[in-house]
Amino acid sequence: NKRLAEGDITYGQPVLFAEIHLIYKDGSRKVICSDESFGCTNGNLVSNNIFYGEVIDARVKIDLSSNEKAVPYNKRMGEMEAQYSCFDRVKEYLAPVQISEDIYDAGENITGWVRVKAKGKRNNRITLRFFEQLNKDNSPDYSSTGGEKQIQKDEYIFGNEDIAYYEPMFTWHGFRYFSVEKDEGTEILSLSVARVHADMDVTGKIKTDNELIDWLCEAYVRTQLANIHGGVPSDCPHRERLGYTGDGQITCDSALCFLDAYSLYEKWNRDIILSQNQETGFIPHTVPFYGGGGGCGWGSAAAIIPWVLYSHSKDRRILAKSSECIRKWIGYMEDKAHGYILSHEEEGSWCLGDWCIPVKGYEVEEVRLNDIFEALDPKLINTCFFYYCTELYCLVTDVLGIENNRYKLLKESIKDAINDNFFDYETGRYYNGKYGSNVFPLFLDIVPKGYEKKACQWLRKRITDIDYKLDTGIFATAMLFDVLAKNNMDDLIIPILENNEYPGFRYMMNQKATTLWETWDGNASLNHPMFGGITSYFFRYLMG
Q: 251 in helix, strand or coil?
């Protein structure tokens, strides 16, 4: 099945690779391996697609007398290895609330599907459609989950049976609401909502006397779990379902604080290494690569993920496995830079700086990059990530005992280039001083010596001038509270959290959100974990 979005994506021909071990009561054994002796027949799963859903036609009966034989698949499939990360499972079944004749509310934004028990005649059809929000007239609003051209939908067609039990086998959906359309003469006997995601324990929890902090941490955990399927941390569970490296690296630390997720990110780090272009060192914006756009903050997952894993485990092996990949990624950025400033990656691709700052231009149908870039120059952010990865490589090689003098000199040259090109020595601001432009250099500790106070004063002025609203994108938001705490400005944190107006987390909470949004205004996906990168702050500073 094919989906024409984020590039032309196909999933290949379905194949069976099986080895069945039979153990008889007398202790004897038999092994059956899949080969050309296996027979084939049509099943009643007549259509399935991980984005669009599936169709079961119970009128189709399996013909075991078919003489059709399996055809050997002769292409190389790679080596079989043990699975690193946990399986997806049905974690619980929820009772939906009916809010109109055909629309139901699961109670919160989740991933999963609907299980149906129904009574109907042959040829009758039940159609389920899934979405995150309602229009003002309580009709389905599909805009946040892919629009009218990508509706998540499951269908069941009755065969001869009177009572049918149905739930999908090869897909899941991201939704809070769903509709049930049925032919005349069909009776729905029961409905339940399956919450489905990686079978991963929640190992960390924060409970405070602050309603917003508690909501933010709970919403992040709910969002992150909804975006862990098949061993990949995704950006959203419906419209894209892609392992965006930028989203993944900025939330990795938070995920490890809240969840038993080490093996997941260890596996995904290996995916990142395998995805790297061995000639150029380029890291794709999604891993496994299925299209999508990003920039240097995305590919920098190659350095950030292993360092975060090491900081949680002190396991040097993860650094040893990643060091060459990091070195090649730095070499790629060095090759693309002019005067140590990074303005682009691959020809014709996006090269974003920070993402989803609170400006217009993020409409799903048409992203207006020029408007976004005018507000915050991507070159500043890209070059900061160039520095960050080089700094991390120096730390990695120090741990491993690898010589790194060239990279220590390189990071100083990058730092000088950032300050020469973007820092205003009179005001203490970087670029225009807005949208987190001062956050990155303060986080990386690259402000010129003696000017740190000026840079902090500008950041404080910016925050108070906009009445403590969050004007940062996904990367700077995750860095912001660390910067404030390390620079004796943590008195600003509670006013930022308590801001009721857009843009901010309390605004999101006040709109009855149960998961974190892709954009501050809620005009895109309503289940995106990337802004949750800020939550690791509460572990590192409130809890020690």
A: helix
